[in-house]
Amino acid sequence: MKKGVLIINFYFVNHFPSMLMDILAIIVIGVLAYRIYKKQDEKPIKWKVFIVIIIGLFSFSITIPAFDTFVKIPILPLGVWILYFIYRNKVEKWAKYRRFAWLGFISNFIFLAAALLSFPLQNALYPENELSTYMASVKEAEIVSTHPSAKKVQLNKKSLESQLNTMRKDSIPSEEWYYNTVVNVEPEDRKERFPYQLTGTEMKWGSGTSAVIYVEEDGKGLLVWTPTKQLYYRADSSILEGGK
Fold first, then answer.
1. What's the CA gap between 226 and 238, in Å, rounded?
2. What are 171-221's pLDDT values in tens digits?
3. Which of 49, 71, 103, 126 has the fewest CB atoms within 10 Å, i.e. the most exposed one?
4. What is the mean pLDDT of the chain?
5. SS3 at position 151
6. Which residue(s) pair with 198 in the sheet?
């Protein structure tokens, strides 16, 4: 259990689902705060309301795994306790700000719900198995050799662009590749299966992910290496030219 942890998560500015859901969460909190404010006969000071809500966000929390990541579940309203201690001898002031303090604590759950909703939104907007998620634009794409066995080739950008939406995802036969590249080949004859790297590509805007893309020796295979998984795609014709 962690003490005094803010449940707010600050995402990369290019992660659109998280940005959108966090903005919606802030709007919901703002609407709730406004409704509480309007219902009170004795109006509290607005800037103090903001501070009280922020302090109310502090909580004891536990971290649990969800959607291949970790989320924090608020358990005890530490911020509310702090504010109660501050206003313990000021009953009238505590009465004015008590609801806003609890709104701060409840806001943890609003942000939590927003974070959980961002995952299906992420999958809907940026399917993790579609190549276009990792290669939305190839206008500045280039080929870089990464192994001594690589031949002097150039990128056939026209071929790449024409096949970008038709490349099919395939399984990765790791064992077969290992035997064909290492076990069944003499050390002096071994070659890297993916001796090229495709650079200069652009991810789909707002995906908030990253990937390194390797090109197979025959120019027909792409190995997309993300922080969490590897994806393999095959094209009908080579995206490389030269090297013969």
1. 23
2. 988 888 887 777 766 776 677 889 999 999 999 888 888 899 999 999 999
3. 71
4. 87
5. coil
6. 143, 213
Report the sign of the C-alpha dihedral through residues 123, 124, 128, 132, in that order: negative
Question: Any residues with CB less than 8 A from the CB of 151 and at least 6 apart, and which?
Answer: 195, 242, 243, 244
Alpha carbon distance 90, 4 (integer Å): 24
Under 8 Å CB-to-CB from 149, ≥6 apart: which residues? 190, 191, 192, 195, 217
What tokens does 86 get? 């501050």
The whole model's pTM is what?
0.76
Which backbone phi and psi does 222 adopt, to 5 degrees? -125, 130
Residue type (1 letter), 118: S
Beta strands in the chain, from DSSP E residues, in sequence order: 2-5, 59-66, 69-76, 142-145, 153-155, 168-170, 196-199, 212-215, 221-225, 230-234, 240-242
Q: Cα dist. 46→33, 40, 51, 56, 131 in Å?
A: 10, 13, 9, 15, 49
Q: How confident is the model at residue 12 (pLDDT cuts 50, 70, 90)?
A: very low
The mean pLDDT value for 221-232 works out to 92
Q: Which two tokens stand for residue 175?
A: 């064992």
